[in-house]
Write a structure and sequence with these properties.
This protein is α/β, with parallel strands linked by helices and 429 residues long. It contains 13 helices and 13 strands. It has a domain at 166-303: Rossmann fold (3-Layer(aba) Sandwich), CATH 3.40.50.460. The two termini are 35 Å apart.
Length: 429
């Protein structure tokens, strides 16, 4: 077994309900092996600014009442996050020398980075630089994204809970929309970037005796205005209240977004930033064709912070993947991501595996064609079979006693800076 005494861990990208559960799994597993855990404040960007925190001190089982279990049931990113694109290792060696110098000053033996597609790009670039320069600091990726668009794993922590929330919200909004017995169209927008997994998950509302959603618009299917309007007219022949779910990444046949190009903004990784607006756009479109009550609703950040709707499966698997990251370092692995392989649907079983980050960085896992209906407005039984186990494990373990609010871990003061010479000091929480 490899000697690992101190590891560095960071969280990156959009926060989720489950990302802190992975962090908790890392801390817990590291403690079992007497490994010290140092956290990056605001990911690799904060680390480059010299901002770190000693997580082994904060969550020491004998010196602090703040439990790792409480961290695991707290939404958002405890360490803070960033969206920071690293330069190509062959083009900016000074940048990576700076990273290496900071790692050396902290006596870091391994790196664990929790995140999605863009975070795996970070793991890949750091790993390549280390390999090319014979730097022996293993680097492991831990998957996280509500979008579920990360290759190399059956699904990603954060997705199951977001899917559960969306399916529940669709149930509730569908009931709300039909109370007056008059024609109405409710359009609900989901996140997901360029993949339609979250939109597809809304179909699970049917499993709870609901007749909504009626239409699901996915990025994997080109959007035609006339087809949507025709479908709505058809459905109005037998229903008064319709629910349409639209993913933020839906595009026209030419690849353009539904919104005006002037509103499109790109992030550092070349992804559309602030993609939201499809629900309102479609609401305005429907107003031109139908004389009825029309609402456009964007679930926005509620999808990724609704701990009250979290699935136990999601939180448990996130913890397991974090712990597996520590085990990967001890086993001498590097330049890889810990992933989940589904063994069976019923009973639901998964196993851990490892995949090289070079094979998955900057790639997108789309909803496959055999999970989408022939007309493009719904999902197939295969999709429901895939989705069902990820949300059906009951309420989250984060629930307190009935009638009480959920308890979270106190916030970390991300602006505190730990000295790079390894001297410890109290970090406020």
């Amino acid at each position: 077994m490899r000697t690992i005494q101190k590891v560095l861990v960071g969280q990156s990208g959009g926060p989720t309900v489950a990302i802190n559960s992975s962090l908790a799994g890392i801390i817990n597993q590291a403690h079992k092996h007497d490994i010290e855990v140092i956290g990056m404040c605001n990911g690799i960007e904060g680390f480059l600014e010299g901002r770190t925190v000693n997580l082994s001190d904060i969550f020491h089982p004998t010196r602090n009442k703040q439990s790792v279990e409480l961290l695991a049931q707290t939404p958002s990113s405890f360490l803070g996050s960033c969206r920071y694109k690293l330069p190509n290792p062959t083009q900016d060696k000074n940048f990576y020398q700076q990273i290496t110098s900071r790692l050396t000053s902290l006596a870091i033996d391994g790196i664990l980075y929790i995140g999605g597609n863009d975070s795996m790009d970070t793991v890949d670039k750091i790993s390549r630089y280390f390999a090319e320069n014979l730097i022996d600091i293993p680097t492991i990726g831990i998957p996280k994204t509500i979008d579920n668009d990360l290759e190399g794993t059956d699904h990603t922590p954060g997705f199951g809970s977001a899917a559960r929330y969306i399916a529940t919200a669709v149930q509730e909004l569908a009931r709300d929309a039909e109370v007056y017995g008059k024609p109405s169209i409710t359009i609900i927008e989901t996140m997901g970037r360029d993949a339609g997994w979250l939109g597809a998950a809304s179909a699970l509302a049917h499993e709870k005796n609901e007749q909504a959603p009626d239409i699901i618009l996915l990025p994997e299917v080109p959007f035609y205005e006339e087809k949507l309007i025709g479908k709505i007219r058809e459905l109005f022949k037998c229903k008064k209240s319709l629910v349409v779910v639209v993913s933020e990444g839906v595009r026209r046949p030419d690849g353009s977004t539904l919104l005006a190009k002037s509103k499109a903004r790109m992030d550092a990784f070349g992804h559309l930033a602030d993609q939201s607006g499809n629900a309102l756009y479609l609401a305005e479109l429907c107003q031109k064709h139908f004389d009825c009550k029309i609402r456009g609703i964007n679930l926005n950040s509620l999808q990724r912070c609704a701990i009250h709707a979290a699935s136990k499966t999601d939180l448990r698997e996130a913890w397991q993947l974090g712990a597996a990251g520590v085990d990967a370092l001890l086993a001498g692995k590097t330049a890889c991501m810990v992933g989940l392989h589904r063994v069976s649907d019923a009973p639901y079983q998964t196993e851990l595996h490892y995949i090289a980050v070079s094979k998955i960085a900057n790639k997108v896992k789309h909803v496959p064609a055999d999970m989408i209906s022939d007309d493009g407005f719904w999902v197939t039984k295969k999709a429901l079979t895939y989705l069902r186990p990820l949300i059906s494990n009951g309420a989250s373990g984060a629930q307190s006693e009935e009638g009480e609010l959920t308890v979270f871990i106190p916030k970390l003061n991300l602006q505190e800076t730990a000295p790079q010479d390894g001297v410890r000091r109290q970090i406020g929480v």
